[in-house]
UniProtKB/TrEMBL annotation, chain A:
GO terms for cellular component: membrane. One of its GO terms (molecular function) is ABC-type transporter activity. This is ABC transporter permease. It is a multi-pass membrane protein. Coiled coil: none annotated. Keywords: Membrane, Transmembrane, Transmembrane helix. It comes from Erythrobacter crassostreae. Residues 25-208 form the ABC-2 type transporter transmembrane domain. It is found in: Membrane. It comes from the Bacteria. The chain crosses the membrane at residues 20-40, 52-76, 104-125, 131-155, 167-193, 213-236. The keyword Cytoplasm does not apply.
From TrEMBL, chain B:
InterPro entries: AAA+_ATPase (IPR003593), ABC_transporter-like_ATP-bd (IPR003439), ABC_transporter_ATP-binding (IPR050763). Residues 7-231 form the ABC transporter domain. SMART domains: AAA. This is ABC transporter ATP-binding protein. It comes from the Bacteria. Keywords: ATP-binding, Nodulation, Nucleotide-binding, Transport. GO terms for molecular function: ATP binding; ATP hydrolysis activity. Belongs to the ABC transporter superfamily.
């Protein structure tokens, strides 16, 4: 793999993301609207903002992974652009990595916007650990981006991928524990959720932004996301190239 | 005297679940040759080109570029100039941006402005790919295939869908590019294109090489009155003294 080619392609992909109005709207604007509505109606805005940061970062990761990265890969395959790339110094691993680089860039932009909005709404910076939060984004985001590429390796058309992404995103978000109060739903959902990637993504992000990735549950979630990343790389290398 | 072998294809075999695409195909293409591959739809032309590019894995056989097996060096195919039959580009990106991107995806880069000038694309650099006519799009794809300054150019049906004037323009450029020791391998359904551009013709039918010779030699075996590839096409598909 050629690092110059990888950087050039990653920047190109990032520029494609910003050409898609809907992608930008749902990735950046919607989380900011959610934050504004929830924080402004809360009795303790600072605590609520602090609680929401990992959740909104998780939402951005999910949307970027399933709606932008995975769908884009299917579009590459569908249009023949993917084949054309493979006859350059871009190989299947570079495509997976450039997806991750684009995903990280978008998430970091989203995090910056969320933190700036928190500061504007509450007047203080949320009580989070930025360094460990970034480490958590690295682990959780990488795992999720590469996991989302797996269905893209098998799906043949962009429309099918959009449908799959929509269904998957509901499942992922429902079982992540972001939306429903798990305690009130029942033991089955609690058990199922512990095997779902969204749950562990949120686990890593919450632990990271709290500054403690060394608890048992955080380490389990970290191992889960790293496993997802390894599985994603394995499938991409196996199914998107024969060399 | 031999100029050295640019491409060597030995015993290629490829089958798909419902068809035999290639059966024991062997070819040796010397540096400086211009070889045209003709044959009906489903004859195996695109499969052959994609195996040479490393995009499709053969069941049996090998491909060497300048004496090196492509399985030994994954980046070897990046030295080829490549225009794929079904590769499309994203419509909202400008010509200039594509040229710059692909230039960075290779180790070597040809003179960008010279390629654009030679292909009469300088005035279209800031136009979006989707706004170009079919002829201009083909020229952009050809420009991308030359951006790595290749010595071997593979074109898969380069003028399909073009009007006569656009085809003539493209032929002139390809002919000019080929002068010297550069090697050209193209597939086509247009016999006049092959006659105009190639000094050797390989006829594929049902996955087998049924004829392989210069145009005059192939036509010398044809019945009286069939003095062009177009008129002798059906006869050539039956095979002309090829084992």
């Amino acid at each position: 793999m050629n690092s110059r080619a990888l950087i050039a392609f990653s920047l190109f992909e990032l520029s494609l993301f910003f050409k898609a109005f809907l992608a930008v709207l749902f990735t950046f604007v919607m989380p900011c609207v959610i934050l504004a509505v929830v924080v402004s109606s809360s009795e303790d805005p600072v605590a609520m903002a602090t609680e929401l940061v990992p959740v909104l970062v998780g939402l951005i990761i999910v949307f970027v992974a399933v709606f932008t990265l995975a769908v884009q890969l299917v579009i590459y395959t569908e249009t023949g652009f993917y084949k054309r790339l493979l006859v350059t110094y871009i190989d299947s691993t570079a495509i997976a990595l450039s997806n991750a680089i684009r995903g990280y860039s978008v998430v970091l932009i989203g995090l910056t916007l969320i933190l700036a909005e928190c500061l504007i709404l509450t007047g203080v910076f949320p009580d989070i650990n930025i360094f460990w939060g970034l480490v958590a984004i690295l682990i959780g985001g990488g795992g999720f981006f590469l996991l989302a590429i797996i269905p893209a390796c098998f799906v043949k058309s962009a429309n099918t991928m959009f449908t799959m992404s929509t269904v998957l995103s509901y499942v992922i978000i429902f079982f992540s524990g972001t939306m429903p109060p798990f305690g009130g739903i029942g033991i089955a959902v609690n058990v199922i959720s512990q095997f779902m990637p969204g749950y562990h993504l949120l686990g890593v992000l919450r632990a990271g932004f709290e500054g403690d990735l060394l608890t048992t549950s955080a380490m389990i979630s970290t191992a889960y996301m790293l496993g997802c990343a390894a599985l994603g790389i394995f499938v991409v290398r196996r199914n998107l190239s024969w060399r | 005297m031999s100029k050295g072998v640019a491409l060597e294809i030995v015993g290629l075999q490829k089958s798909y679940p419902d068809a035999l695409a290639l059966s024991n195909v062997s070819l040796q293409i010397e540096n400086g040759q211009a070889v045209g591959i003709i044959g009906p739809n489903g004859a195996g032309k695109t499969t052959l080109i994609e195996i040479i590019m490393g995009l499709t894995k053969p069941d049996l056989g090998s491909v060497s570029i300048n004496g090196q097996d492509i399985r030994d060096d994954a980046n070897l195919t990046a030295t080829l100039g490549v225009q794929l039959q079904e590769a499309n580009l994203f419509p909202r990106v400008t010509v200039g941006k594509y040229i710059d991107l692909f230039g960075k995806l290779y180790d070597t880069q040809a003179n960008r402005d010279k390629i654009l000038a030679d292909l009469d694309l300088l005035s279209h650099v800031d136009k979006k790919f989707g706004d170009l006519s079919g002829g201009l799009k083909q020229r952009v794809l050809l420009a991308l295939s030359l951006i790595n300054n290749p010595d071997i150019l593979l074109l898969d049906e380069p003028t399909t869908g073009l009007d006569p004037v656009a085809r003539e323009d493209l032929w002139s450029f390809i002919k000019e590019w080929h002068v010297g020791s550069r090697t050209l391998l193209l597939t086509s359904h247009f016999m006049d294109e092959v006659e105009r551009l190639c000094d050797r013709v390989v006829v594929l039918n049902r996955g087998r090489v049924v004829a392989d010779d210069t145009v005059p030699n192939l036509l010398s075996h044809a019945p009286a009155g069939k003095d062009t590839l177009q008129s002798a096409y059906s006869f050539l598909l039956e095979g002309v003294g090829h084992e």
